[in-house]
Each structure stands twice: as C-alpha cells, then as structure tokens.
Amino acid sequence: MMVSVAPQATAGWQPLHVDGRHILGESRLSIRGLDYRFVRERVTTPTRWRFNEPHHTFVVHHAGRLRTMRFEYEDGPRGTLTLQPGDVWVIPAGHRCGAVLVGDSIEYVQLTVSERVLGHGQLRPGLGFNDPLVHESVKRLSSLVARDDVTGLLMRESIGEAVRLHLRDQYTLDRPEAAGSPRRLTARSRRLIAEHLKDELASDISLERLAELAKMPVSAFVTAFTATFGDTPYQYVLNRRIDEAQRLLASTEMPIRAVGEGGGFSTPSHFASTFRHRVGVTPSQYRSNARN
C-alpha cells in the first residue's frame, strides 16, 4: 500500500518520514470525488512503492529526475521505464502492483478515485501514458491548494471537474453515453443563473448550486453552460466580476481594496494582476483614465 498520512488538507508542504520512504513534503486537495496528493519524495536509493487499493489510483509524474522505474502488475505487464513529466501510471481498483524507483528528488501527484465517480467503467491498467491535459491541470491545481477566496474555489471546482470527465472519457473501456442531457441551457435556466450570479457575484458560487438551478448533473451542466454562454462557468463569473469592478472604479469613490474584496479576490495584488491581465491596465490606471 502506498504511504498514507494524516487525511486533513494542508496548505504548503509538510515534511514527513514514513515507512522508510523519504517524503520531503506533501499537500492535499479533494475535488469532485477525486483526492489529490501533491508529493515531493527523495528516491536516491532504491525506493519501493506498493499498491493494493479498493479505489482507482493515478500517479502523474510532475518533475524531477527519475533514472529508472521497474514496475510489475500481479498477473499483468511488467518492465522498466524512465518516466517523463506528464506520464501517468494507472492502477485499477483491486489490482496488486508495485515498483522500485531510483533517481533524485521527484514531484508527483497521486489521484485516488472510487469506481462510482468514473461511472463503473473498467479501467485500463498501464504505465507510461503521456497526458498533457492531466499534467497541466494538476500543476495548476497545486498552485490553488492554499486559495480560499471565491475565485480560487471556483477555479478548483472547474479544473477538478474537467479532470474527472477527462479520466472518465480517456481511461475507461466502457465509456458511458450522455443520456438525454440537453446540450444548451433553457431560457428559464439562463434567467435563473443570470439572476443568481448577479445577486451572489461577491459570494461563494459553487458549480453544484448553478447545476441545481438548471436541474442538471454537474458534468452535463458544465458542457451546456459552455455551449450556451461561450465561456466555462469560471471564465464567465470572472468576466462578470471584472465588469462590475470596472463599473465601481469608474462611477464610485470606493477604495480599490474594497472593490477587489467585494469581487471575491483574495488579496489586492491578486485583484490588480487579474484586472490588468483582463483589462490591460491596473485598477488605479483604469479609474484615472475613466475620469479624464
């Protein structure tokens, strides 16, 4: 079994030394039924990993030099590989397998997910699949572990749902059909969502609540929302918040810090950088230009 530690989420790296393995640190995140462990581990001496889990496991190699990895599935494939960033090791629930790693300090992400979350489809076991989408997604999620502002939470939900759907689509042998889910939102759903976002723009907006308003599963809702509005829920909400910030900067004397806080941005610097990226100038420059 792979090394386990305290289950609570952690912000930042937590040094650990467990079962003879040299874990330099880890942080955790749970989104959309997937548990993520972002791990740094030293493997300068041969290091053994073992798996025999009741849930599916994906291990994504993120960074660091891994000279060799000798792996073996019970009654399955075996061999020796040198992993590259973005390579994925897939271990279906109930499969016994292990590996011996030798390298330097490595960074990887371990995802655990129940069979139910992936739709009960049979998982394809294997090692060495290179998956740029999963790699970039988990890299972005690792930067959001400590974020508890509204924008950060919504970003985590959106990226986490994209990862779940991608794993379900690409790694299961029996891909479920999207039965009867509308491809676009109805006029009533659009109105309810628009009203909710207008009223709760500065609050914690969850995908579950938006999907509930549309009376759709979250996965179907994300697809329908994007088809209807031309943006993902995260991008749409962020655009609306920037629009409201522009209005307040141009028409009120509200302090810039308060404008950012009211828009759900975690810090003034986060608000300023996001605003500049979207608008092309800083909030203070925008206010000055709007009054000239």
How would you describe this structure to a colleague?
38% of the residues lie in helices and 25% in strands. It is an alpha+beta fold and 292 residues long. It folds into 2 domains: 22-147, Jelly Rolls (Sandwich), CATH 2.60.120; 160-290, Orthogonal Bundle (Arc Repressor Mutant, subunit A), CATH 1.10.10.60. Strands 1, 2, 3, 4, 5, 6, 7 and 8 form an 8-stranded antiparallel beta sheet that branches. A hairpin with a 4-residue loop joins β4 and β5 (78-81). α6 (233-251) packs across α9 (283-290). The N and C termini lie far apart (65 Å).
Search tags:
8 strands; Jelly Rolls; alpha+beta; 292 residues; eight-stranded antiparallel beta sheet; 25% strand; 2 domains; disordered N terminus; Arc Repressor Mutant, subunit A
How many DSSP helices?
Answer: 9
What is the top-level CATH class of the largest domain?
Mainly Alpha
CATH architecture of the largest domain: Orthogonal Bundle
Average of per-residue pLDDT values:
81
Question: What is the oligomeric state here?
Answer: single chain
N- to C-terminal distance: 65 Å
Order of helices and strands: EEEEEEEEHHHHHHHHH
For CATH, the homologous superfamily of the largest domain is named as Homeodomain-like
What name does the CATH topology of the largest domain carry? Arc Repressor Mutant, subunit A
Shape assignment: globular
Classify the secondary structure makeup into a structural class: alpha+beta
Largest sheet: 8 strands, antiparallel
Regions with pLDDT < 50 over 5+ consecutive residues?
1-18
Number of folding domains?
2
β-sheet strand percentage:
25-35%
